[in-house]
Amino acid sequence: MDTTKTTDAPPPTSQPPANVQKRVNRGATRPGDRVFLGLSRGSGILLLVIMAAIAVFLTYRASLAISKDHGNFLTTFEWNTNLVPPSFGIAVLAFGTVVSSVIAMVLAVPVAVAIALFLTHYAPRRMSGPVAYVIDLLAAVPSIVYGLWGALILVPHLNGLFGWLDEYLGWTGIFSWQGGAPRSMLTVGILLAIMILPIITNVSREVFRQVPQMHEEAALALGATRWEVVRMSVLPFGRSGVISASMLGLGRALGETMAVATVLSPTFDIQTSLLDPGGGTFAQNIASKFGEATQDGRDALIASGLVLFVITLLVNGAARAIIARRKEYSGANA
Amino acid sequence: MKLQRKNRLRALTLGAVAVSGALALTACGSDDNGGGSKASGNPSSAANASSIKCDGAKGQLLSDGSSAQKNAIDAWVKNFSQACGVQINYKAGGSGAGVTSFTQGQIPWAGSDSALKPEEVAASKKVCSGGQGIDLPMVGGPIAIGYNLNGVDNLVLDAPTLAKIFDGKITNWNDQAIKKLNPSAKLPDLKIQAFHRSDDSGTTDNFTKYLIATTPDNWKYSGGKTWQAKGGQSAAQSSGVAQQVKQTNGAIGYFELSYVGDGIKPVSIDTGAAQPVAPSTDSATKAIADAKVVGTGSDLSLKLNYNTKADGAYPITLVTYEIACDKGNKADTLPTVKSFLNYMASEDGQKLLSGIDYAPMPDAIISKVRSTIATLS
User: Fold this and answer.
1) Span A71-104, pLDDT tens digits
2) Superfamily of domain B143-285
3) Which residues in chain A are contacts of B251 at CB distance < 8 A?
4) Interface A-B: count of C-beta contacts within 8 A
5) Phi and psi at residue B62, in whole multiples of 5°?
6) B99-137, pLDDT tens digit by residue?
7) Taking a contact as any Cβ pair under 8 Å apart, which residues of chain B between 9 and 38 contact chain A?
8) In A, which residues are within 8 Å of B248 by CB distance?
9) Residue (of B143, B257, B315) closest to B303 by Cα position
10) Taking every annotated instance into account, which residue ranges of this chain make up the domain ABC transmembrane type-1 (chain A) (predicted)?
């Protein structure tokens, strides 16, 4: 109200240009604008403050733990924080986290891309809706339920697959099996693959749907078959989208906790075979050790959480770099 | 009955005076009525109710500690709160958490599966003005070694063999050492799958304490709540280990007695006594009877004799302690804590244990516990 009044009044001769300049820059400001500006700026600042506080807290607690660590934080194959002095290292956890996530990606990405292509380019319209809906439902199942299903149903049924792998691929060393319960890195990878399938499928589907009609029609006009259309126009266009979808899935696989803790048989050593039980992941280790952890134990777990955070950052950075480079070639987002 | 009526009278007069406490007290009154009416119909619950002396117990009680004794505490709380109208909340967040809360003065009593360490006693002196925290052994728990092996029913093992199995030195069920202990059993040519706890646990601590005490040559680890041997397989919580043993032929694992059955058979331990001993609440009590009280003053912490050769004594047993101040308990919670501890240690309280797979304390120890509780102030 005030502002309109002042502008209505004839300004002194020397003032007008400055006054006009101001109004152009800021637009009309009414109380609502100021409140909104304050709220949104405040939210932004609050977020940064919270993030900074968390980072400071985590780094501080982690540094406490690492300074007390009697073993080597990077190479010790042990996690015993009840010893005096405590002895723990993240080697096994880092290895297990990366290996299980890689297995999950290898299994999930091709299937997810195939499903997305089927839904967008092959399935009859009447069918693609319900199938997409079912895949969305997969994403809505809580991870502990996947864990229980994995431990009670999947694990007992994997004996056959493990036996087969051992018989035909055992010579590689990666797929040899000593006959322990099938609660190994491969089991975790299979379960994680099922869990990250929906998110990769959904994002890929959205990307494939946005392929310009003109590209596809042009390919068809040149006499391409449907597979050739997919290969020449859909996949190149969607490549960066599929990569970011995979990274979203990878993020979930890296941080998955309860399902891994329920299915894996965690031990603090690295198995050369993917079929022999053992190993561990960061999130699983935190979940299973937190309950009885002492002060030192909690600090050590926080330190391992920080490492997981760094690994996730690196993976995301790498993915962004790949996407940025691919853009130039594919011309997709031009 | 007379006592009860007196209590109710006291409660009513108090209720008239303290308006602010009206809600809690009416709850107390109505519970008493409920207990009374039930007592007339059911003689056994009448016996329960009459043995609980409420002695000014009132309000709410918070506690935290060992999850190993949770079921026992739950059963006691149910009876006690019915009789006295006191609300007791035992969180079972782990022994470490319980002791920490106790030494910080947040809870008047804690449960723990190991006695207070010297530094914890020192910390407790700040909370117990003029006194210190003491350990009262209250609940015994046999740790069963459960196995799943088709066609083998009464497996007998001794400490060295157990240590070698769980350390990965004996890997097949038809190993000579096992054959020697089970001459009549048909042991299959099958890989042994030994399961341990993946989370830190007092059960692991007590099991490995037994191995360290009985066969240090075969178990060269320092012990503690974290499993230290390499190899083997693991699962979270006792229920997880039991689940794995149940669904794997050739598996062996350790957990509380309540998980035995339903496809899991208990190993009998060859202790050197005339007969191998199977885990049971009775045999655990017999082993605890062989323990020495090592606490000083009013502290009653026990040193179990893992090498016991007494007939029918099952040595792999843990004892959980209730921890309170000997002097300097908070005045507002003292009567409630005292009467609840009294009920735990009472004949009825201890009798309740064997029905839910816990071992009652032997007479010599529980009578000391009772006289110590009487001196709490």
Assistant:
1) 889 888 889 888 878 889 999 999 999 999 999 9
2) Periplasmic binding protein-like II (3.40.190.10)
3) 181
4) 72
5) -105, 140
6) 989 999 999 999 998 889 888 899 999 999 889 999 999
7) none
8) 181
9) B315
10) 94-319
